[in-house]
Amino acid sequence: MPSLTSKRAQHWLLHAALATxxxxxxxxxxxxxxxxxxxxxDILRTPPNFFxxxxxxxxxxxxxxxxxxxxYQRVLAPRPAPEGLLPIRLTGNLVSVYLPNSLLYxxxxxxxxxxxxxxxxxxxxRYRFRGRQTLLVAILAITGIPLLTNLLAxxxxxxxxxxxxxxxxxxxxxxxxxxxxxxxxxSVWIAKGFFDxxxxxxxxxxxxxxxxxxxxxxxxxxxxxxxxxxxxxxLTFVNVWNEFIAGYLLIAKNEFKPAMFGLYEFLGQNIIxxxxxxxxxxxxxxxxxxxxxxxxxxFFAAMVEGAIKG
Amino acid sequence: MLPFWLIxxxxxxxxxxxxxxxxxxxxxxxxxxxxxxWEWVGPRNFDRLFKMGLFGESVGHTALFLVGYTGLxxxxxxxxxxxxxxxxxxxxxxxxxxxxxxxxxxxxxxIVFRLLVVPDYGLLAGILQNPALFPPEGLSVLTAxxxxxxxxxxxxxxxxxxxYLILASTWKALPFIILLLLAAMQTVSxxxxxxxRIDGANSSQVVRHILVPLMLPTLVVALFSLTLSGMNGVGxxxxxxxxxxxxxxxxxxxxxxxxxxxxxxxxxxxxxxxxIAAINWLLILGTLRVTRxxxxxx
Lengths: 310, 298
What we know:
heterodimer, A: 2 domains, B: mainly alpha, MetI-like fold, globular
């Protein structure tokens, strides 16, 4: 049957096309990894060479490759630390100050958003109260306010709060609240969607069996909604980790800067040291890429849920 | 009382971080800072904003960017979703690999693309600066100014940096659009397509007369969501071009930053912010209408 062979050929053609598309999609990532492992000698060459592997006689000789971790060394700036737990200490600002800051902002915001979104998402899903519909529409409408245009006012608020010298308050607190306010509306809708998918009968059965409403929420609905809430957490974490402009404008002190801010400054200082900038990019992008690869199902679930709503 | 206390914290945060600043921005747009304090100036900030040469130019750049970015992303996204819709064994792997750019921050995408075209040393600079390929003297994406405009002041043909900005933005946005379109494609029932095949329709006819009409609401949602991200995204402009060379990639979102934080013109910046926010609102309302229509049809 000729149609069978043509079908098989079509099948392979499809695979070839998709593999090529993936390859193209990953070229910028691959080149960045490649650049980050070059030495200064191979960076500063005109015309540039793709692989640092040319020898005197051959354009490409695998045995002559001059791979180097100089870029990473300059970003991490490891120093011997005799009295520490580990024999070396990383002293580069990007990894010792900015990256932990990003971890703090992203982690704290994601936790806060998950908590608030699960509370209000549950209430919107389970209770019919006056003003419910209005509030839901209002929250959806708020997703229409872009972070960018609110920043002028938020910046002024930040300056005022800074001047007020509230005890234990600093810019970090403000930034986390701003991020929470910004990523909350969509998360409420996503969380509501996940709660809607859990049958009410389960809770009613728990109530009949003598559980309190709060007990039913904590013992029955929460565990069932946990995968969905986890998705909200992960999505918020990645969004905050990757956010640039608010962190750039709302943080004044050097020791509170998030990684994207640090990276942007780093770019200005090192634009000609391509290997150093590449290494910095990879170190900062790697945590969320790994997170995504491990939890991709969660991400897709939250994104499809969110895309339908807003 | 339980629902009230469950919702109260969310409402409080949203009032403080979203509603109050939005109202404050409206107030700001009607005032101007004077040595003595804020003075009411009415619509003068808008007036002065519209008269700025850079404003008209930014509108042109933004329009050009949005058309290129949304058009290219939708076209590529639809095509790739079509390929993935064949339910191959490795589809999951392909989707995962294609999705990696989505997780990478705007600012890093900008840097990654910038490093490729850094004059003389970038990996693509060797190809781009070759006079034989790009006459008369090779192309340096980050420094080449745009050619003379064809129609009035409208920035067409765009500067190489603008084309490059569109490509980088498309690269980053494509995964999400593929996912969105693929999800919609999978809801189109296989039987409809099968029966049209039996009736003698070829592939392009199936796409044109069945897939596109049935997926129209999703395509519109994708278009609006791309326009929103394109209007408000500023990180990539920061790290890729910084608005330059000259002002050839100065889009409205980046102009808001220069106006507010470089020139400290808060009143005029607030006017611009309101304008951007208004466009956002119109797009969201449009999306809501389309999704509502979709729900009614189902």
